[in-house]
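User: Can you predict the 3D structure for this chain?
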Amino acid sequence: MAKSVKSNLYDDLKRQILTMELDPDADLDEASLSERYGLSRTPVRDIFRRLAGEGYVDIRENRGARVIPMNHATLRNFFLVAPMIYAAIGRLAVQNFKPSQLSDLKQTQERFRAASQNMDALAMVLENNRFHEIFGEMSANVYLQPSLGRLLIDHARIGHTFFRPRNADMKRRLQLAVEHHDSFIEALSIHDEDAVVDLVFEHWELSRENMEMFIAPHGLKADALIGAPTTQSLEKSP
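Assistant: Here is the predicted structure, written as structure tokens:
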């Protein structure tokens, strides 16, 4: 029973961080979480440590745990390295994926499609995140997977506006994202490595402008515009 409650707390905190129900830099109240979930302080601290190891939480000595913050330096680094890591993950996924993982990807895509049709923003965030997590699992690379996991946390948080379209163009982009996922699955199925990498950059550019809307007040738009072509040219260079 205790293990199940711990799992619920772990899953709930991850979901709330990814969907921005918990703001970046928000303090996590150990006492209130212990009471709400009927757990002692020790298992709650265990969950905090696990989430810290995965990049969701920051634990400060004598100050408790907080949701991992987003600042100028971390976001600039995100925009600089995300496309390169996504492309490397894509190449390795083509080389190493298992049939069961492709099946999981297809099922996740169907849930993502349904969420997009219902305009369920929270479900879209979670299913999109899971779709790209599966790519990391397919890559079977112990060095890149943790980096991907950390990137996906901020990608979900920065890009949450993408799943709440406010005009026809944003709705068109969202539909194109759904189609990209279908194309990823098709390219994987035929082991087309170059097609997967091309899709990585198309998919990245599709959401980048929306992410810039979120970070513009922090003065990061110029950094983002500098980072994207640089990373793409690196990947495409012979």
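Confidence is low (pLDDT under 50) at residues 217-238. The first strand starts at residue 27 and ends at 28.
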